[in-house]
From TrEMBL:
InterPro entries: AraC_E-bd (IPR010499), DNA-bd_dom_put_sf (IPR009061), GyrI-like (IPR029442), MerR-type_HTH_dom (IPR000551), MerR_fam (IPR047057), Reg_factor_effector_dom_sf (IPR011256)
Gene3D superfamilies: 1.10.1660.10, Regulatory factor, effector binding domain
Keyword Coiled coil carried by entry: yes
Top-level taxon in the UniProt lineage: Bacteria
Residue ranges annotated for the HTH merR-type domain, each copy included: 5-75
Pfam families: GyrI-like (PF06445), MerR_1 (PF13411)
Name of this chain's protein: Effector-binding domain-containing protein
Amino acid sequence: MPDDLIPIGRFSRMSRLSIKALRFYDEQGLLTPARVDPASGYRFYRRGQAGRAEAIRVLRLIDMPVTEIRDLLADDDPELTGKRLSAHRERLRDRLAEQERMLRFLERLIDRGGNVMPYQVTVKEVAANPVAGLRLTASLATIGAVLQQGFGTVAGALGAAGVAPAGPPFVVYHDVIDERTEGEVEICLPVPAGTPVPSGPVYYREVPGGPVASTIHRGPYQEISPAYHVVTGWIEEHGIVAHGAPREIYLNDPQSAGSPEELITELQFPIDRVPPA
């Protein structure tokens, strides 16, 4: 065996990457062993691979996705590599700004005893709503990306069919999603009744009408939780029952809103009946 080959255990200590991580990066084509013993399957690395291992370790520490690391390390063009790093730097800046904004929201939430803004609950009858829909699974960490991808998929299907949306987009939350639990969300774009939707994951259905308890949230989507607290509390206080999954209806376009604080979202909870006046 060549003298410069290092067993995976020693290379793990040298690179500060676990054996499990090294095996994963091998499977992903990021860091291929210099030699794999054909009998035992044991992996060996060369000292010269330590630099690539360190680049991978640092890039994962700053949350660059594995697929992007693969593309970045495959580039021979320094200019293209620089552009990839700059794009990730901008994502990190956006994420930091989002985290700082959420910390300010938390401070307001604590200072005001959980009441960030006054919510007025109203009851109204809504008509059945024909939609082009798409069900996806999301976690708390992925919900933003899942919704963005889902709306793009549904809008693309409608565009291919030559159909324009007939109302504001909304999401039906079929499950409670938190940091430990994934759940199903349904992306909905209203369409004219009877609209044919191309075959594939996007389908046509009617979201049932009926009475709903509703409130308006003004501000970033991530700060809507207190509206849920208010509406569900109102439902309990009036002795009625939530009769279906809640819906978030996005009444203005994030692209045209001047800032996240100008976003307007209607939260609707279907209920079994209208309480007496």
